[in-house]
Write a structure and sequence with these properties.
Blueprint (H helix, E strand, L loop, with lengths): L3 H26 L3 E3 L4 E4 L4 E5 L2 E2 L2 H6 L4 H12 L3 E2 L9
Parallel strand pairs: 1-5
Antiparallel strand pairs: 1-2, 2-3, 3-4
Helix pairs in contact: 1-3
Bound molecules: zinc ion.
């Protein structure tokens, strides 16, 4: 269930980040943020990235140092309580 706090987070994310925010909210709402036992990942359009509050393995973050939408997705999913939990090790799936 999405409460009013979550709605506020979504509004805030969209206001601050436009397109990135919309992608983030979409991913968060569609089970694309997955918490494994060892890592949290975001399933992007072309690849899957390991994320946390302030880190992401994608090129945008690594090379441009900008906050990418994967991190936003993680934060949004956390606020919404939509992080999908998997009782598996992410590293095993490489
Ligand atoms: Zn990223």
């Amino acid at each position: 269930m999405v409460g009013s706090d979550a709605a506020e987070v979504i509004t805030e994310v969209c206001r601050l980040y436009d397109m990135k925010g919309e992608k983030a909210v979409f991913a968060a709402k569609n089970g694309r943020v997955i918490q494994y036992r060892d890592f949290c990942v975001v399933i992007g359009t072309t690849d899957t990235y390991v994320v946390d509050e302030e880190f992401c393995t994608c090129g945008d973050f690594t090379y441009r140092g900008s906050q990418c939408w994967h991190i936003l997705a993680y934060r949004t999913a956390k606020a919404l309580g939509t992080i999908v939990e998997r009782d598996e090790w992410y590293q095993d799936s490489f």
